[in-house]
Amino acid sequence: MWGASFYERASRLFQQYPSLSKLLVVATVSGGGLAAFHEGRPFQSRTAYADAAQPEGESKKKKVVVLGTGWAGVSFLKNLKSSSYDVEVVSPHNYFLFTPLLPSITCGTVEARSIVEPIRCITKKKGLDVQFREAACYKIDPQNKKVYCRTTQDNNPCGKNEFSVDYDYLIIAMGAKANTFNTPGVEQHAHFLKGVEDALKIRQSVINCFERANLPCTSQEERKKILHFVVVGGGPAGVEFAAELHDFVVEDLAKLYPAVKDDVSITIIEAGDHILNMFDSRITKFAEEKFTRDGIEVKTGSQVVKVTDKEISTKERTGHVSSMPYGMCLWATGIGARPEIIEFMKQIGQGNRRVLATDEWLRVEGCNGVFALGDCATINQRRVMEDISHIFSKADTDKSGTLSLEGFHEVIDDLMERYPQLELHLKSKQMSSIHELLKNSSGKYSSTEVDIETFKSALSQADTQMKNLPATAQVAAQQGAYLANCFNRMEECEKYPEGPLRFRGEGRHRFHPFRYKHFGMFAPLGGEQTAAHLPGDWVSIGYSTQWLWYSVYVSKLVSWRTRVLVVSDWGRRFIFGRDSSRI
Amino acid sequence: MWGASFYERASRLFQQYPSLSKLLVVATVSGGGLAAFHEGRPFQSRTAYADAAQPEGESKKKKVVVLGTGWAGVSFLKNLKSSSYDVEVVSPHNYFLFTPLLPSITCGTVEARSIVEPIRCITKKKGLDVQFREAACYKIDPQNKKVYCRTTQDNNPCGKNEFSVDYDYLIIAMGAKANTFNTPGVEQHAHFLKGVEDALKIRQSVINCFERANLPCTSQEERKKILHFVVVGGGPAGVEFAAELHDFVVEDLAKLYPAVKDDVSITIIEAGDHILNMFDSRITKFAEEKFTRDGIEVKTGSQVVKVTDKEISTKERTGHVSSMPYGMCLWATGIGARPEIIEFMKQIGQGNRRVLATDEWLRVEGCNGVFALGDCATINQRRVMEDISHIFSKADTDKSGTLSLEGFHEVIDDLMERYPQLELHLKSKQMSSIHELLKNSSGKYSSTEVDIETFKSALSQADTQMKNLPATAQVAAQQGAYLANCFNRMEECEKYPEGPLRFRGEGRHRFHPFRYKHFGMFAPLGGEQTAAHLPGDWVSIGYSTQWLWYSVYVSKLVSWRTRVLVVSDWGRRFIFGRDSSRI
C-alpha cells in the first residue's frame, strides 16, 4: 500500500468529496503538484466496527445524539445513510466551520460567511430525520443514557435555559479548547484561533493596532510596540497566521498606512528547535528561510512563561528570562481537553488521563453505546503484549505448545489488522512478513516451529511503534465517516461480522477497526507559496503548491455555496485587495 | 425647473456618481421606471457660499478638520479638489457605510463588508493630503479653534488615549443618534439600526430567537413570544427591516425551521395614522395592504411607553395602555442630537435648540470657520420678515419711499435666491412672479407703485412656507458636495462673489446659498417590490421599481469594489438564499 505510485496517492488524496464535486476538475500539473479531482466515496475498505451497541431488532428507531458540529460530527452526519435512527444534534454553533481556512479570515483574505454552512442546510439535503439544538452539553450521564444541555444565549429571558436528551447511542465530537499550559495572563491578554469569533476578533484587533499607531498621541517608540505582532507556537496555525498577516501588511496596509508601515514587526515564538516540526525538515528549512527574508523573526527554543497587557516574558533554554513589548498576541500552541470532557472522564474512571480514550472502534472504554471522535478523544491502541498468550493459543490450532509457521497463516491477517503497530514494526525492520520476524527471532533459520517465548520476544518491540493520531481535521473527518458507515451497516454486520478474530473471545469483531489514512498536510507560507508534505515523504513547495492548495481546499468545502463564495473571495482579494474596515 | 420633463428629472436623479460609473449604463424601462445612468457632476449651478472664512492669502496651507465619515463628511472629501488645504479627518469609524443598504444587512441579503469602504481608500484615490484618525471627538473649542479627541479602543494599554487637533476650518458631520424619546427600557432592551454593529447584532438576534424557539425546553406559548418581532416606528428604516425579515422568514428560515415557522409574527408600531407617512398616500396604502396580506401587523396610532426584557407597553389614542410580549424589538423612530453636539450647542449659545443650527451657507451661527452638515445640523432659513425693511430700501433705489415695480427687477433674483420660501409661497398661491403678488396685495391692479406697508403685507405669509430638510443621506451628500465646491473655489469667489445681494450690508455674498434638490425616495417593501416617490408627485410601485432600486443603489455605491460585492451578494441570495449561521 505504501509502495503505490504517486498518482494513486494523489488520487486517494481527494477522496470523500461531496456528490457534485466530480464536476470540478482542476488539474494542476506543476513543478511538484498534480491534483486530480474526482468523486470519491468515503473510504471503507479496511474500516470496521465492533459490537458496542446491541441492535435488539426493535421496530422503534434508535436515538442517536451527536454532540458537536465540527469535522467529526458533520462528517458523521453527512455519511449517515440509514434511516433507522432518530438523530439529534446538540452544538453551541448552528453551523459547520471549515477550519483549514480559519487563518485566512483573520486578515480578510476570505470572509467568515464563506466558510461556514448551517447544520440545517447540511442535514436537510440528506433527507434524514435530524433535529438540531443550539445548546452546549454540560454533563453526560452514561448510567442513565442522558445528556444535559444548556442554551448559550444569556440575554433571552423567555423560557427555560436547560433541557436533557435521552440517547441510545451517544457520539461525542465536541472538539478541544486551546491549551494555555496554565501560563499566567494568556486567557486575559492573548487571542486564540479556534472559532469564527476568534478569527473576527483578531481581524479587528490587527486594524485596531494600526489605527492606534496612527494617532498623533502615539510616540514613535509606542508605535513600534503596538505594531509588534507575536505568534506563540510554530505549528501550522501560527505559521499560517504570521504569513497571512505579513501578506496583509505588505500587500494592503502598507499603502494605506504609509506613516507607520516601517514600524511593523512579526515574531513567532516556538519552544522547539524548529517551526513546523511535524513537517519534513526540507519544509521547515524553507519556511524558516522565507520568514527570515520576509523579516518575520522566528525565535525557537524559547518558552513563554507569562503574558501581561503590555509584555510577553520568555524563557530561553539557558534559563534566561526576558520580556518583549507587543501589540497583539496569538496563542497557537496546541489543544487541551474541554472542561465537560474532563468531568466526564472523571465519572468513567479516566480521571488520570489527559484526554478521553476510546478503543479502535471509537467506543469510549467502559461506557455502553458511547463513541468519541475528533479532537476530544484519542484511540487507545491495544498492545500486542497484553494479548500475546491469547494470540499464541489462537494461532496454535493443534494446541501443541509450539506454532507451526505454516499453520500460522490462518490468523496472520487478523493479527495485522487488530494490531497495526505490527505493520509499522516490520517496516522499521525492513521485513516483508511476520514469518521473517519469527524466523529471525527463533535464531534457527531452518526452523518452522516457534514456541511461546520466541513468539513473545519476536513481537516484544512492536508496541513501541504505536503512535497517537494527530488532532487534525483529516483524522476527525475520517473518523466521522467511518462511524457513520458502521451505523449504516449495523444490522448487516451483526449477521455477518467482518472484523478481525477476537483473540480473547470467540468469533470475530463485528466491524473492521478504524484505520487512519494520511493524505498529506499543507502549510501556506504567504506570498502565494505553500508547502505540502504528502505520504511517502513526498514534498512540494512553491507557487504551484499554492494552486494545489487552492484546488484541494475548494474541493473539500462542504457545499457549492461555500465553494462559490471562497473562490469569489479569492478573486476579490486579487482584484481589490483585503478590506481594512474595522467592523 | 419643477416643470421639467420626467426624463430630465430621472436624469438629475442619478447625478453625483463616482468617476467610473459612466461605464455602467443600466436602463430599466418598466411599468413605471426608467433609470438612465450617466456620469453627472455635483450640482453647482445655484449653490454658493458665504464669507465665513477669510482667505488671508497666506502661503501656509489652511488646516481643515472633518469630524465624521458618514454621507456628509465623505461627500465633502470626495468632492474636495483644491490642494490648498491640509485635511485631517477624525471619526470613530475608519470606513464609510452605505447606510441605505443597512436594513439588507440585518437579514443577510447583503454582507456588511460589501457596503463599507475604508476612508483611506477613498482619500488615497483623490491624491490629496488627507490624514485619518480613528477617534471620537468629545469636545469642540471654537474660541481656540481646537477639537479634543479620544481613541475608541478601550483595551489597548499602549500610549495615550487623547489628543487635540487645531483647525482653521472645522466641518462637523458627526451624524445623529437614535432617539428614544426617553422611553424607559429602550436603551437596555431594544435594537437600533444606525451602524454596522447594530445591523450585525440584529442579524444574530433574529437567528438567536429561532434557535431558542427550537429548543425542547421552550413551550408552544413561549415559542410564540420569542418569535414575535416588533418594529417601533413606521418610517422607511423600520418598514424595510420588517419587509426584509418577512422575506428572510418566508424564503429561507421556514425551510430550515419547519417546526416553529408558524409561530412567527411581525408587528410594526407607529404613533401616527399611517406607516411611511412622509411618502405619498398611494404608497402608504399599498404598503399597508401588502403588509396585511403578508401577515405583518401594522398597529398605528399607538405609542410605546415602556420596554421591559419581556414586554412592550403601548398607549393607544384612547389612553388605553396594553402590553405585548416580544422576542426582539427594533427601535426605529427617528434621530436625536449626539451628546457632544448638545455640549457644543450649549457653549455657543444654542442650548435651547434641539439641533445645531447653521445658516444657508452651512456655517454654524456665531462660530468663525465652523460648518455643520448632515444629520447633526439643520439650516436655519432666514425669514423674509426679519429683513423686510432692508429689502425694501435696497429695492427702493431712488429712496422715494415707494417701490416702482419696474425698478424692483434689479433685486428680484437675489431676493428669490436669498429667501427660497418666496418661490414656494408663489407656487402655493399659483402665481408666476412676485410682481403678481405685489399687485394683488396693493389692491390696485393698475398701480406700479408699492409702499412699505403693502410690501410687508404681500410677503408676510411667505415665511410659513419654510421647511426643515429631512435627515436623509441625500441631503447630507448634497451638503458635503456643496461645501467642498465652496472650498474648491474659495479664492476665486473671494475676488468675484457670486452669491445674492446682501440686503443688510454692502456688496454680495461670496457664494450661492445651499439649495437642496430632491431626487426622490425609495421604500423597499419586500417580495421584490419597491415603492418610489419621485419629485413632481410621481409614484412607482412594484417589481419594476425594485429593479430601479437595484440600479440606483449600485450606481450610488462609493467604489467599484462595493458595487461588485453588492451585486454578487444579490446574486448569491438569488441562488443560495440567505445564510442562517449565527456568527
UniProtKB/TrEMBL annotation, chains A, B:
Highest rank taxon of the organism: Eukaryota
GO molecular function (one): NADH dehydrogenase (quinone) (non-electrogenic) activity
Enzyme Commission code(s) on record: 1.6.5.9
PANTHER family hit by this protein: NADH DEHYDROGENASE, NADH:UBIQUINONE REDUCTASE (NON-ELECTROGENIC)
Cofactor(s) required for function per UniProt: FAD
Topology versus the membrane: Peripheral membrane protein
Gene Ontology cellular component list: mitochondrial inner membrane; peroxisome
Protein known as: NADH:ubiquinone reductase (non-electrogenic)
Keyword Transmembrane in record: no
Matching Pfam families: NDH2_C, Pyr_redox_2
Known catalytic reactions: a quinone + NADH + H(+) = a quinol + NAD(+); a ubiquinone + NADH + H(+) = a ubiquinol + NAD(+)
Keyword terms, alphabetized: Calcium, FAD, Flavoprotein, Membrane, Metal-binding, Mitochondrion, Mitochondrion inner membrane, NAD, NADP, Oxidoreductase, Peroxisome, Transit peptide
The protein's enzyme class: oxidoreductase
Coiled-coil residues: none
Record-stated family: Belongs to the NADH dehydrogenase family.
Domain EF-hand, residue spans: 383-418
Record keyword Coiled coil present: no
Cell location: Mitochondrion inner membrane; Peroxisome
